[in-house]
Protein: DUF6692 family protein
Organism: Neoaquamicrobium sediminum
Amino acid sequence: MSYIRFGLMILTSTVVMFILMYLNTYAWEHVFFSETRTYMAVMMGATMAVVMLAYMMGMYKSMPLNIAIFIGSVILFALSLWLVRSQVTASGPSYMRAMIPHYSIAIMTSERAQIRDPRVRKLADDIIEAQRREIAEMRYLIADVSSGNVVESIYKDPPVALGTVEDALSNTLISQLDLAPMHEAEADRVLGPGARCRFNRSPEADPILWSAQGGGGAALKLNGVLITLDTAGDPQSGIAEFSAPGTTIAVRMLGDEADWRQNAELVFELDQGLTVGYRGFYACGN
């Protein structure tokens, strides 16, 4: 057997292992290129080269070439391991591209595990909601940071203060506020009958924004409270703004930027200074 064939076998196996690492992602839109997974595939390919050559020494008779393959594989293994653990090449966008498939695994296992204990089920459901929210936020940030918009500061809550349990229960940490998924029955309590539009962070999750199609108000859920919003504009014609005292939400259709991962982005702002953006899916209809 030729050494060229051996090299092609290792290369093919490395590419196959890289692809296989994506098979446990939950959804197609969660597949992003990951530098870390690339390094992991190279590390496994280098390991395979050493193991396979060690078992097939009788088929490969050139000792100098065998030694070179062993040494080269060890160096490649050490280099890829260092790249994985140091993350020296991972910028903000590449970090998020690696994290999205990782979070997607958590969604799949949390949703499909055969859980009977309600405490564990609640924990799994909380993980699912948090990961879907963070994936949508990372999709937004990947586009925003990659376009050159790197901010210097973000909103921070005031320093902690001494107090009682009652004080803690009545305190709202602005930085932790976020739009919560709304069931249609909850939207019914705010909006009148008729066709509606909705923004979903994930196709499998409930919308975080409901609006009456063609104007007439919108609804969101914030910190356990259903809030009515005024509407200006129409996202399907480009961009729309939804507002209530203390908050503004802008929804923009992505146009040529849209793909299977997203067709719109939503930016949620509070007057206190908090701003959070998501990329997801906006659609209208009954």
